[in-house]
Amino acid sequence: MLTHENYLEQCIALTALYPFWPGVRYLSILPTNHAIDFMVGFIGPFTCGAAVVHLRTLRPEFIRDAFTRYKITYMTLVPAILKSLERGMRQRFDELPRSRRRILDSLVAVNRSLTRTRPRPALSRFLLPRVHKAFGGELLALFVGGAFTEPSTLQFFYDLGIPVGNGYGCTEAGTTITLNDFRPFRADTVGKPLPGIEVRIVNPDTEGIGELAVRGKTVMSHYLDDPEMTAETIVDGWLLTGDLGRMDITGHVQLFGRKKNMIVTEEGKNIYPEDIETVFEGLPVKEFCVFAANYIWPERTMTGEKLVLVIHPEPGQSASEKLIADIAARNRRLANYKRLAGYLAWEHDFPLTASMKIKRVELAEQIRRGVNRSAVVAL
């Protein structure tokens, strides 16, 4: 149950970092019944007098057209769409003649150097006019959340002068808990807590990683008709998020995955699948996911835990020797206790949430019904 006060406090916190005003044009592509778009694509613009452009499709060509047609100022999107935009831009850059590509790379390097401490929109538009014209010429920032975003993707856009506010949140805390304020830009974190929101780490381990707890006026009042779950989730005024992370001395938060997804090896090491997946970002496959083999195919023993990479190749492709060699090379970069034991090629689309996150439980059930453990290919 989110109250009127919850949303207004969230609005105050967000607009303190990213002001909306009459003349701002926000591009809305997420469902408005989703907490993110209800906040950023409805309440924020409504209270600040900004305009909203509703685009109910995720097709990249329509999104690109909306940027230029409506001179978009801000937009919130999920990591999958941001990654799609990046792939399209990289492909166009790669198609440039060699001389023009060298000029582009030089200008990007200059922009990166001059915006190291803070974004400078006017300068970036001057140095890279064609890039910014493709985004309408007035874009101030993109916002991304709902799932993990690869740091290299965030850095790619920032170097072009297109800051991406990487945020973390949950519906129980309004919408957003932390957000990058670009002072300075940190691609390896999900930013700092918003004004008025407190974050602490519960029961941190030797590496400082523990469950994130949140307190503030944006936190929900309760779960509807579920006092027991409310009592388990809100303890002494702190919302227990179920997410694992740590906070550095500057206040930036790093995420490592869901508490319920954590794997404990026989050596007593904690492993977070989402953390391992960062090493495999950019693989030329449609989607992938890391599981503990014993989670997909339960066994009586909890020792000898093996990690499995489930890959879904692009349509018409297979697990080629080149792809497997790429996986094996990345696997060697991991610490011994984090390394994959093997991979599984899965031919079906992964089940996804509305915000494009993988439904891990449902995917594991589908794999369990479809194949047995012998289908895993050793690395």
Major sheet characteristics: 7 strands, mixed
CATH architecture of the largest domain: 3-Layer(aba) Sandwich
The proportion of residues forming helix, as a percent range, comes to 25-40%
CATH topology of the largest domain: Rossmann fold
**H/I helix tally:** 13
Bulk shape? globular
How many runs of DSSP E, i.e. beta strands?
18
| pLDDT < 50 stretches | none
Task: Give, in spatial order, the strands making up the sheet with the most strands.
Answer: 2-1-3-4-5-6-7
CA radius of gyration is 22 Å
CATH class of the largest domain: Alpha Beta
CATH superfamily of the largest domain: ANL, N-terminal domain
Overall structural class, as computed from helix and strand content, comes to alpha/beta
Work out the strand percent. 15-25%
Instruction: Report the span from N to C terminus.
Output: 47 Å
Mean pLDDT: 90
Number of domains: 3
Notes on the protein architecture:
This protein is α/β, with parallel strands linked by helices and 379 residues long. 35% of the residues lie in helices and 21% in strands. Strands 2-1-3-4-5-6-7 form a 7-stranded mixed beta sheet, sandwiched between helices. A hairpin with a 5-residue loop joins strand 11 (238-247) and strand 12. The longest helix has 17 residues, at 98-114. The chain is globular. The N and C termini lie far apart (47 Å). The model has no long low-confidence stretch (mean pLDDT 90).
